[in-house]
Amino acid sequence: MTVLNELRMRPAAAGRREWDASRRPRLLLTLAIMTTLLVGANLATPLYPLLGERLGLTHFGVTVAFAAYVLVLVAGLLLVGHWSDFIGRRAALVLASVVSLLGGVLFGTATGMGALIAGRALQGASVALATGASSAALRELLPHRPEWATRFTLLVSAGGVAAGPVIGGLLSLLPAPTLTPFLIHFVVLAGLLVPLCLLKARPAIAVPPLGRALAALRPRRLAVSHQARSQFWMASVTGFLSFAVFGFYLSLAPTYFAGIAGTSSRPVVGLLAALALAASAVSQLTGVRGRLVVPAGLALMGTGVALIPAAGALGSVPLLVSASLAAGFGQGMAFRTVFNDVAAKVEPAQHAQIISTVYVITYLGSAIPVLGLGAAGAAWGLPSAVAWFSAAIALSCAVLCVFALIRSRKKAA
Questions:
Q1: CB count, 10 Å around CB of 190?
Q2: Where are the beta strands (DSSP E) in 120-181?
Q3: Are the C-beta atoms of 132 and 353 separated by less than 8 Å?
Q4: Which end of the chain is more exposed for a tag (fewer CB within 10 A), N or C?
C-alpha cells in the first residue's frame, strides 16, 4: 500500500513490491522515527539564550515561542489525533516526518519572531500527527506485552525530549550554531523516511465507508473510554503536572540554570536541562512495581521540584542535579503506571483517539503554566517566578499524592 493511497484511504495498486518486514524491524523503525521527531522538536532548548540575544527576546518571548509548539501540538491532537486509525500508522508517521523537516528548516533559518513561531508550530504539528500513531503502532506490534508497549512509548517520549537539548548544545558548537543542528536533523530524518516509505504497511483498523473518507478525518470531540474513566483522569492530571515541569526545563530553565552554574556553555546548559527528562527515561527501564508506586513517584517529583529554587538561592549545582534527577525519576515512576492503567483498558479501535486526548491534557501543562511563568519572570524576575512556580507544582503533587494513596487503599480493600 503506497503512502499516497493510504492518505486517500484506498487500496494499493496490485503487484507493487514492498518491504514486508518482520515485527522487530517495524518496532525499531517506529521507535527511531518517533525519537528523531522529538529530538528535532527539542534541539532549540539550549539555543534559546543565544536566540534571545540575537533576536532581542524577553523571558516572555521565549515562552511564547515554546508555547507555540505546545499549543499547535494540542490543537493537532484534537484535529488529527485519530487519523492513523483510518490512514494507517505508517502514513501518519510519514506525514509527520515531512512536516517536521519543514518546521526544522524554518526555525533554523528564522530571522524574526514570526518565523520562529511558525517553525515551532510545524514541529508541534508533526509530533501531534505521530503521537497517537506511534503509541498505537507499538501496542499492535506488542499485543501480548502491553506494559512494554507503554514503557517504550514513555521511554521514547522522555528519551527523545531529553536527548534534544544535549544534542542541540553539542551541535551548536559547530559553525552557524542556530542552523547546523536542524540541518543535521534534516539529513537523519530524511534517511529514516526511505525505509519507512518502502515498508509494506498494515491496513488501517477502521476503514471508512465508500464516499465517507473525508468525513472520517473530521475533528472529533475529546473522548474518554467508559471502561477507563478513573484511570484516564489520573493519567491526565499526573501528565499535566509532569509536563508543566518539563515545559520549564525546556524553555526558561537553560537561562536559570546558566546563572546557577555560572556558565554560558550551551552543551553544559543543555545537559542540565535534560537531566529530569533523562531520569524519567531511565525510570522506564526499572522494574519498580506495587500499589504505592504512584504516590511515591508523585512525592519524589514534588520534592525535586521544591528543591530547584533552593539550588538557585545557594548557587549549588550538586543540589540542582539531585533535584532534577529526583523530579524526573519520580515523574517517570508515576506517569508510567497511570498511563499503562488507562492504555490497558482502552478499546483497540479507539486507542489512538483516547491516548491523544490524554496527551491533549498532558501537553497543556507545558503551555499554560509555562506562559504564566514567563509573564511572571518578565514582571518580577526569573528567580522569584521560579520559586512561586516550584511551590505551586510541589503543592499540587502533594494533593495528588494523597488522592493516589486513598485510591490505592480502596483498590487493595
A1: 12
A2: none
A3: yes
A4: C
CA atoms lying within 13 Å on the CB side of residue 356: 32
* 298, 332 Cβ separation under 8 angstroms: no
- Categorise residue 56: left if φ over 0, alpha if ψ from -120 to 50, beta otherwise: left
Q: Which of 232, 205, 236 is nearest to 344 (CA)?
A: 232
Task: Tally the C-alpha atoms within 13 A of residue 45's C-alpha that lie toward its C-beta.
Answer: 38
pTM: 0.78
Phi, psi (rounded to 5 degrees) for 385: -65, -40
Tell me, what's the pLDDT at 112?
A: 83
Amino acid type, 42 = N
Closest by CA position to 323, among listed 341, 342, 302, 294? 302
| Alpha-carbon gap, residue 41 to 44, rounded angstroms | 7
Could you give the CA distance from residue 303 to residue 234 in angstroms, rounded to a whole number?
Answer: 20
Q: Which amino acid is at 254?
A: P
pLDDT digits (tens, 9 = 90+) for 285-340: 776 677 788 999 999 999 999 999 999 999 999 999 999 999 999 998 898 888 88
Query: How far are the Cα atoms of 65, 167, 334, 379 from residue 321, in angstroms, in the given order?
Result: 26, 19, 20, 27
Tell me if 253 sits within 8 A of 389, measured CB to CB.
Answer: no
Written as one letter, the residue type at 43 is L
Length of the chain: 413
> 3-state class of 278 per DSSP?
helix
CA–CA distance, 58 with 371 (Å, rounded to integer): 12
Of 133, 67, 70, 152, residue with least CA distance to 339: 152
Most confident of 153-167, 276-290, 291-305: 291-305
- pLDDT, residue 189, reads 95
Determine whether 373 is exposed, middle or buried from the number of CB atoms within 10 Å of its CB (0-12, 13-18, 19+). Answer: buried
Enter the DSSP assignment of 19.
B
pLDDT tens column, 373-387: 988 988 899 999 999
CA proximity to 124, closest of 182, 217, 223, 40: 40
